[in-house]
Design a protein that fits this description.
The chain has about 120 residues and is mainly alpha-helical. Helix 1 (about 5-60) packs antiparallel against helix 2 (about 60-75). The chain starts with 5 loop residues before the first helix and ends with a helix. The relative contact order is 0.07. Strands 1-2 form a two-stranded antiparallel sheet. The protein is elongated, with a radius of gyration of 26 Å. It contains three helices and two strands. The protein has helices at about 5-60, 60-75, 105-119; strands spanning about 80-85, 95-100. Strand 1 and strand 2 (about 95-100) form a beta hairpin.
């Protein structure tokens, strides 16, 4: 290396460090982030399901059930729908709790799917 000022050397070192950090961060994100987020969401869904199941089994009233389900949906930051099915009648589905807007496309698709699964 010939005569270079300290400013040039410091700039080159700074650019090299920033480049290394950016590339290293990108590589971590590219190879590991998807697996981490999928595992994290899977754990969250399982935990929410177990909480809902426990609450449904022990709730004494519908009001207590709805309040508990609302708290679980807030804690898990998830949209959920809990439906009580009556296997005796065709229209025997009662939505106990839903934090989705009634009448929306996804709401109706879920109810249609549940009817399809029942029969």
């Amino acid at each position: 290396m010939g005569k270079q000022s300290i400013r040039t050397k410091m700039t080159a070192i700074l650019v090299a460090i920033i480049s290394f950090v950016l590339i290293f961060t990108w590589l971590l994100n590219f190879f590991f982030a998807e697996k981490y987020y999928i595992a994290s969401e899977k754990t969250s869904v399982i935990r929410s399901y177990q909480s809902v199941k426990k609450l449904v089994d022990k709730a004494d009233s519908d009001i207590e059930l709805v309040e508990g389900l609302e708290q679980i949906s807030i804690d898990s930051n998830a949209r959920m729908m809990v439906v009580r099915s009556d296997s005796q009648s065709y229209k025997g589905q009662e939505v106990i709790f839903s934090n989705m807007s009634g009448g929306t496309r996804i709401y109706e698709e879920i109810l249609t799917y549940l009817q399809y699964v029942r029969y």
